[in-house]
């Protein structure tokens, strides 16, 4: 028997750790719309330089779940007031027909980085920009913004 064989042992002979019982911390829980058969998932890191306004108004074809890694994001979904998401906090959006207005860096002195797992409806792009005409038609669905 080689040294590797002696040290490997079987799973049953290894002492079991109890760490798994407290290793999980739930950061967010959401009830997204159903995911259609054939959907794809993509996990990405998005990084914006200081003060960058982020992605222009857009929508995702499916739900997106995110975690702020560094900095702060100014986040706004259609029908919800804008809010600041800080490092260590989570966010999610249902996707579909909901416009995502803002995801820009809320800080002018540091970058922002966030991780997002997005579900993409079959045959649809992951992200679609919203044009000015549609923004004007849906203006009534946007929550009041500070200072307006």
Automatic annotation (TrEMBL):
SUPFAM superfamilies for the chain: RmlC-like cupins
Ranges where the Cupin type-2 domain occurs: 45-116
Region feature Disordered, mapped onto this chain: 1-20
Biased composition (Polar residues): 1-16
Domain of life: Bacteria
Protein name: Cupin domain-containing protein
């Amino acid at each position: 028997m080689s040294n590797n064989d002696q040290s490997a042992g079987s799973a049953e002979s290894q002492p079991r750790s109890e760490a798994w019982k407290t290793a999980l911390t739930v950061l967010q829980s959401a009830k997204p719309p159903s995911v259609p058969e054939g959907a794809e998932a993509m996990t990405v890191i998005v990084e914006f330089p200081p003060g960058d306004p982020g992605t222009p108004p857009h929508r995702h074809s499916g739900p997106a779940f995110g975690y702020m890694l560094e900095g702060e994001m100014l986040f706004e979904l259609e029908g919800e007031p804008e809010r600041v998401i800080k490092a260590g906090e989570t966010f999610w959006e249902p996707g579909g027909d909901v416009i995502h207005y803002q995801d820009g860096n809320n800080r002018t002195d540091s970058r922002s980085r966030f991780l997002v797992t997005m579900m993409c409806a079959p045959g649809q792009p992951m992200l679609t920009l919203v044009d000015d005409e549609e923004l004007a038609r849906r203006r009534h669905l946007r929550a009041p913004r500070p200072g307006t």
